[in-house]
Design a protein that fits this description.
The chain has 299 residues and is mostly helical. It is built from 12 helices and no strands.
Length: 299
């Protein structure tokens, strides 16, 4: 009888090769974003300053019930095509850059004292590269997610935004995105790597380790960067607003000023619950998928 050798996923070389890491990252990114997209749509709607009472929600459950009953379940998936188009390439770049920088920074050296520095540097570097690619897709996604959005096609949305607002509209939030995602990713990767080492010190295959470590890392990183995410949403959806002040919002400082003036301190926590609810399972799934696909592709 042929004996099938069990793959020791965590026993694989940490540096599995750039191609493997990029392919695994792309598949993990598409999986992560597609599964949690409805919760992300709710988060976007809760973060904008809506003028219509029909677009003001008291919580995640209230938003889900009202959107699905008045607009249909499909409304919660509007914009997912943009995420799928962008998430694959962006996550491929993200994970490829992460593993490459971590290897060169000495993060794969067993017992090295600077491992946490290497993983933080690798995570931040990966984010700068991947966000440059993903930002336009994220703008399109959020424009399509809004209440009574006129867009049903990602390509139509992209053409309309470019024609009416110019190329800059796709990158007006990029500095804010980096301000948010560099610390987010540094925190996420550092917490993940530390928890993974703590929960699974022997490095044996353990899906539970990836789920727990990935979920907790996502929750912590998502919560602490929520204020910046609120500002990013305002910048990315400003072109659809009827409010002159929001339409002329030019950067992070303007967005923070608007949030503070209209909603005070609590305004910086708009969408906190759905953001954490999105990142806990999506990060758990992303890391589980990434580790699995990395090993599967190598095999």
């Amino acid at each position: 009888m042929e004996v099938i050798e069990e793959i020791e996923y965590e026993g694989l070389s940490p540096n599995a090769g750039l191609g493997v890491n990029m392919a695994a990252g792309a598949l993990a990114g598409i999986t992560e974003h597609a599964v949690m997209f409805p919760v992300d749509s709710i988060k976007t709607r809760m973060q904008v300053f809506a003028t219509s009472p029909a677009a003001v929600y008291t919580g995640v459950g209230n938003a889900f019930t009202r959107i699905s009953s008045t607009e249909g379940m499909r409304a919660l998936w509007r914009g997912v095509s943009s995420v799928i188009m962008g998430a694959g390439p962006a996550h491929a770049v993200h994970f490829g850059a992460y593993e490459l920088v971590k290897e060169y920074a000495g993060g794969n050296v067993e017992g090295a004292s600077n491992q946490w520095i290497a993983t933080s540097l690798a995570g931040a570097s990966a984010t700068i590269a991947s966000d440059a690619l993903m930002n336009p897709f994220d703008v399109i996604k959020q424009r399509m997610q809004l209440h009574k959005s006129e867009f049903r096609s990602a390509l139509v949305c992209a053409r309309t935004v470019y024609r009416t607002e110019g190329l800059g509209a796709f990158y007006v939030s990029y500095p804010t995105t980096l301000t948010m995602t560099v610390p987010f990713t540094a925190v996420q990767f550092t917490v993940y790597e530390q928890l993974k080492a703590f929960l699974n010190p022997v490095g044996a295959y353990s899906p539970a380790t990836h789920i727990v470590a990935g979920g907790l890392a996502g929750a912590v990183a998502g919560a602490v960067t929520t204020p910046l995410d609120v500002a990013k949403t305002i910048l990315q959806t400003r072109g659809t607003s009827a409010d002159p002040e929001i339409r002329h919002c030019r950067g992070l400082a303007d967005a923070f000023r608007i949030i503070w003036a209209r909603d005070g301190l609590k305004g910086f926590a708009r969408g906190l619950a759905p953001r954490v609810l999105t990142f806990m399972p999506s990060n758990a799934l992303c890391w589980l998928s990434y580790e699995f696909f990395k090993a599967a592709i190598r095999d």
